[in-house]
Design a protein that fits this description.
This protein is mostly helical and about 100 residues long. The chain contains four helices and four strands. The strands form two sheets. It has a two-stranded antiparallel ribbon with strand order 1-4. Strands 2-3 form a two-stranded antiparallel ribbon. A hairpin with a 7-residue loop joins β2 and β3. It starts with 6 loop residues before the first helix and ends with a helix.
Length: about 100
């Protein structure tokens, strides 16, 4: 019998058993996730935020994606994921933050 753990599950396990490198690994996963999110957002013409490792109970390591402009439809490539997500309301706020930075 085999147990298959995804990266977030392994990270949670590492933290639970007190492995000293767990925080470093979380940072590495966040860096990879942020890099991937930026590339995806660039290709799709949307805005992405930085990835964060929040644990399996809170969606694992994930990054937010938002519209680049008011009324922008959610690209199909993103729409298939996170069906409970709220496309649009946070995007305008994120766009303003980006413009003001």
């Amino acid at each position: 019998m085999t147990k298959l753990l995804n990266l977030d599950e392994m990270l949670d396990c590492a933290k639970e058993i007190g492995l000293p490198d767990a925080d470093m690994w979380a940072g590495q996963l966040e860096a990879i996730g942020s890099t991937m999110a930026a590339a995806i957002a660039d290709k799709l013409g949307v805005i992405a935020g930085d990835a964060s490792a929040e644990g399996v109970a809170f969606a694992g390591t994930c990054a937010p994606f938002n519209p680049a402009f008011e009324g922008q439809p959610c690209p199909d490539a993103l729409d298939q994921f996170d069906p409970e997500g709220d496309w649009g309301s946070e995007g305008e706020a994120m766009q303003e933050e980006t413009a003001n930075a």
